[in-house]
Design a protein that fits this description.
This is Alpha-beta hydrolase superfamily lysophospholipase. It comes from Nonomuraea rubra. This protein is an alpha/beta fold. The chain has two domains: 72 residues, no CATH class; 242 residues, Rossmann fold. The chain is built from ten helices and ten strands. α5 packs across α8. The protein is globular.
Length: 340
Amino acid sequence: MADRVVVLYRGQVVETGTTEEIFAAPRHPSYTRLLMTSVPSIRDEQPPDPRSAAGLARRSARPRLRLRSMEYDMTQNGDHHAPDGLKTRGTVIVVPGRGETRATYARFGSRLAHDAYRVRVVDLPAAGPAFLDALARRLSEAVAGIAAEYPDGLPRPLVLVGADLGAAGLAALLATAAPTAVWWPQAAVLAGLPGNGSRAGGRWEDELDVRTHCPTHRGDLTGDAAVERGALAGPVPQDLLDTAYASTAGIPRLLLAGDADPLADRDAIARAARTLPRARLAVVRGAHHDVLNDLQHRSVAGGAAPDPGTGRPLRWPPAWRTRGAPACRHCRCRGPGGGR
């Protein structure tokens, strides 16, 4: 929420003040108070009766919309649904990386949902000995919750998408869990797998430079109070990385790495891609550590979408190019696939 509020009427400033002052005690005798009664209320008490004023049409004091019971958390809302009237083409479950929240993947989730996929972003468990068990539980809960929404159960194919520590966790789970697990996917997308001992330090601006050069995403990260600044400064547990890179599960995997990612061990990722029976490495040119949320986010999201027929991601190109890319209509940054 903004720190200060400016109230305009017919092009003229009628009141200014801090957010707390304006909402607690609007000073303008008519317009500000009348304006505030038109805001939907989530409280049960009756709104104050506005005064009539010269030059203003008399209006009812009763709001047009009243919400008597609502649970709402914008930051942690990680659900994205296919448009009404379209058959859901599949399910995508996203596991964020270090320091990130569900809101970090709102743009990514919305992009996939627009193409008729059911998307849910889960919380990344705390690092520690119980990390993989906690991650498996969250995946199982997500699958069960989405399956309950549909008469025929979970829309498949199911694709798991992980970023940074989330990607390492998914890779390690695929190496250790049984294919009978309720969350076992038809494909996986592992984005920004960290290398051994990789970490980022310095100021917040330095961490942003490591993460992304997309101005909109940088603003989203900075404006989200739940984002843990400095999270990339801590190392990823070595045993988790060893398990992740040793995985040999046969499901299709798309490994995404930015060629400008200072935390990636591209040699290790390339070896993993060669070792895995069904894997493809895509190096995204110009992308940084948050490869799903950098300037190339629209093309990357399109490549991560599952093919309903095969279950694997739709596009398996060797690289995405940024040269000459149109502006993205969603956030006005410049990246491949801008505009729809």
